[in-house]
User: Fold DUF58 domain-containing protein from Rossellomorea oryzaecorticis.
Amino acid sequence: MTWKREVIEDPYNSLSEILLIILAGSSLFFQFYAGLGIFLLCFLYFRARKWYLENIGKELKLNQPPKRVRIHCEERGNWEIHFTNDGLPVWGAVMKLTFKDIVEPVNHPFESYHGGNVEVSIPVSMGRAESVKVSLPIVGKRRGLCRLTKVQIVIPHLFGSGKVLLDLVEPVKSTLMVFPAPAPVILDRNHHSHEIGEVPALHSLFFDVFQPVGTREYISGDRFQDIHWKASARTQSLQTKVFAPSVKKEWMIAVNLSEKYSITRDLETIIKHTAYLMQMAVKQNISFSLVLNIRNQGVTPFYYLPSGTGRKHQQKALEMLSTLSTDDATIPFHIVLQHLSIRQLVPAVLIAAGVLTGDDEGRLSKLESKQREIYVLHSVDKQGVVSLWNQRSKIPS
Assistant:
C-alpha cells in the first residue's frame, strides 16, 4: 500500500537550530566549553527529532485482503483492518477512517459530515516488526455497499511538537455490504403449477421419482423401472414404488427501476418488497430468478440471476439489490421482457414490479398469451400487494 506523507513541524525549529549554531560558535570563540557542550546537545536533539519525523511510518503497510462482510440492517458486525510495521515503533497514533453512513460505528465516537460521510478516530500503537489487527464494531443502518473512502494515520512526535500525516493513496479492497430490510407483501392468491417439479404437494399429476414414500401391489401397465425388487422378494409378489406427488414452483421477479428518464423515486420501497418476496420464496421452497433492467456487460445486457433456491441463492439476489444506485443506467423494460421471451426464460409465474408503460404492458400481453400467469407488485396504502395483472384488488382480509 502507498502512503502520502506530510510532515508538520514547528516553524521555529529551524530558527532554533540556527541560534544554537551561533551560540555554540560563540562559546567556542570565548572558550566556554560547558556552554558549547550544552548547545551541541540541544542541536543534536533537534536533529534527532527531525530525523524521527522524516522516517517514522515509512515501513508501515496495510495488509488488507479482498474481503466482503455482509450484514443486515440493524445487525452488528466488525470491520477488521490489518497493519504491519517493519520500521520505527509507532506510539500514540490515531487512525481516522472515513466512509458513508451506510453503517455507523458502535462504542466509538464519530462525526457526521455533509454528504453522508462518517469519520471515526481509533487509537493505534505498534512496535517494530509487529502486526496489528484493528477491529471496528459497526451496525448496519441502510442498504448499500460501504467502502473506506479515506484512511489517515496521525503519528505525533514522542518528545516534542510536530506530527506526521499518512494518507492512504490506494483503495482498500475490503468492503461491507448491508442487505435491504424486507417489507411485508401480501399475495392475493396462490399459484399451483401444472408442470413436473420437485416441490411436494397434496395433489398433482406428477411425482418426484427421487422421493419414494412406499410400495403397492403391481398393476398391469406400471413401468418396469418402478418395480421395488427387494420388497417384491420379501412379499413374494411384485411391488411397485409409490412416489410423493410434486409440482414445479418457480417465480421470475422482474423489476423495472426506471421511471421516464431516471431511476424511480420508489426505488427503496420496491427493493424492500422484492427482498420480502425472495424471503417468502425461500421459506416455501420456491425457485426464483431475479431480473433488473440495469445495463450490464456480457451476453445478457441487464442484471439477471438464473433460477435457484436456498439461502445461498437468496444471498446472491440480495447482493444485487444492495448495490443498486440512483446513478445506474437502465435499459427499457419492454426490451428486457422481449429478450427473456426470445430466450424462453420466463417460467409459469412472472411478477413484475415498478412503473409499467404501454410498451411494457404490450409485451406482458404477449407473455400472457403463452400460458404465463402475470402478477404485478404494487402498493395499496403503503402495503405491498401482489395481484394478477390488470386485476388489482384491495388488500385481502
Q: What stands out?
A: The chain has seven helices and 24 strands. Helices lie at 12-29, 33-55, 229-235, 267-283, 311-322, 333-342, 358-368. The radius of gyration is 34 Å. The longest helix spans residues 33-55.
